[in-house]
Model the fold of this input.
Amino acid sequence: MKTECLRHKAGKTACWTAAVAVMVAALSVLPVRAQTARAQDAPGTQEARLLATLQKANPGTRFTAVHRSAVPGLYEVWMGPNVAYVSARASRYFIFGRVMDTVTMTDLTGPKLALAERVRAESEGAADAQAVALDRLPFADAIKTVRGTGSRHLVVFSDPACAFCRRLEPELEKLQDVTVHTFLVPFQGRALPKAVWCAADRTKAWRDLMLHGDASALGVQADCTTPLDRNLQLARQLRISGTPTLIYADGLRTDGYVDAPELERRLAAATVRTGAQAAGPALVQEKLP
Done:
């Protein structure tokens, strides 16, 4: 076409315009083809990609399912009975709450949460025979936090780099008359858990870091001996693959974030099951066989 333009100088402008038009048309097809290719993805492909992305970015969290939500561009991300809403384009940001249809005034999330809770209750009932014996846990390897009388006991496997663990801590702060035993598991790296354990006051360092993001009390001793390897082994023995994981006095557990009212309900249920409110479990400083 360029040769034709040079030969017919009078029509040169028109010839170049035609060339540009062809180029623009060719380029405009590319996004359409890309969109068509994405639209032809097999059902569940985008969900599978997002699930893999989230698991890689948050190795200490157990993601169980990803589904498209009623809101275009947002996906339901399930972590056991807990749900958040995530954009595939910005998966670092989680939105917690419920989706409401303002036309029909329908809670779209509530029924799914109720179903997830029933599934969890059934699974806990099935796992009852495999309940953890708290008096066999090595509590010397945990951070001990006592509130009030400390008569009730709660075990938490946690990682300071875990976002859901940080979200859990303010809920634990609301509990009264409880002793929380926190086993640090370095699912997302060893430096931060080691700095917590090596602090002069590890209970204070843990609370400052998890509640306020204040790292000033962390320890930096290079030769500090930690129980991190033992805690990892313990987590494997108990089949704990994500944080936070909570174990109650009756040996039953919950995986993932739990709010204060639910914690209180489960602590009360554990007390009824064990009859241990006054004395609490016998905390023997020994290792699992």
In short: The CA atoms of residues 74 and 87 lie 5 Å apart. The longest helix spans residues 12-39.
